[in-house]
Amino acid sequence: MNQALAEGFLVIGENLHATRALPRSSRRILAREDGGEAIRYHDAEGAARWLAVPDWCRETPAYGQGRIQHLLIALRQALDGSPAEQEQAAELIRYEVRRQIEAGARFLDLNVDEIAPELERQQAAMRWLVSVVEAASLVPLSIDSSNPQILAAGLEACARRAGRPLLNSAALDRLETLDLAREFDAAVIASASGRAGLPRDAAERVANLEAMIVEAERRGIAPSDLFADPLVLPIAVDPRHGVNFLESVRALRKKYGAAIHITGGLSNVSFGLPGRKLANQVFIALALEAGCDSAIFDPVLNPLAEIAALDRSGEPYRLTRAMLLGEDPHCAQYIRAWRQQRRSGAQQQPVEAAS
After folding, report:
1. How many CB atoms lie within 10 A of CB 176?
2. What is the pLDDT of residues 124-161, one digit of tens each?
3. In the chain, what is the greatest distance between 2 CA atoms, to the nearest angstrom?
4. Do the beta carbons of residue 70 and residue 20 sit within 8 Å?
5. What distances in angstroms separate CA 259 from CA 46, 186, 208, 299, one per listed residue?
């Protein structure tokens, strides 16, 4: 991956989501003497602070799987807590904002859909999150939801202190979100999802996005405000998912040149796999080479400088690249190599050579 290209890459930091979780084994989780747990973060002066894990969190599916949804805790505390508890929740959010921006995020993606099933509560959470993040952020916001009403609440709350927001996302089965982007003068991520569901292959991805670009133009949305997302789906489900995405990127870049942005939730490719960090980083490099000039991922976990410095001559890179390009059916060689590494206790790479 060319270092100069990497420096112009627009990272949409995805770590401000209610779904995000920390492993209970994380160094950020403290086991307290009373049997409870607390989440470590730092205030603006760098002093360590701790947010208690509430009892209700222990009843969540994520906790049963060994994970703590720290941002969900902060959001619920912000809506239901005392003024002091609300400020503590805001302080944790500001800490996550600083980490994302320092790691290179150019937008901050906000999603609160999982806070509760009630629309009013979701909207209230989005408004609160927008206000807290905007006050602390040096970069624009990306308002993310599957519900246009939550998108509207977030866009209405944006003061645009750091620039115009990004709407995430519009698709052929929810064209009204393009109208929202136009109404609120926002850039917009256009998804390759079709009217009947997810696209089957690269050709369907490209056709859906071509239709989305036409719909955006009809509404007066400039191509430069479009972030085309061909959709990244897990490679563990279908070995063609990585290839389909990359082929779509190349086709779109060939047709539209630099007129549009091309993006995607690149870390989706590794769902269900071990050693996700290496898989994500190799796929980010492949996506950039194919023509992506943007991506949605966590830059704290995947610094662009680290991705640019990947050792392409090594066996870990070779095995991972082969898997992502559909040359390792069922990810068998990759998983076997990862298991071998775990048995040997090796820690240098997420994947070592398999015998």
Report:
1. 10
2. 999 999 999 999 999 999 999 999 999 999 999 999 99
3. 61
4. yes
5. 42, 17, 17, 25
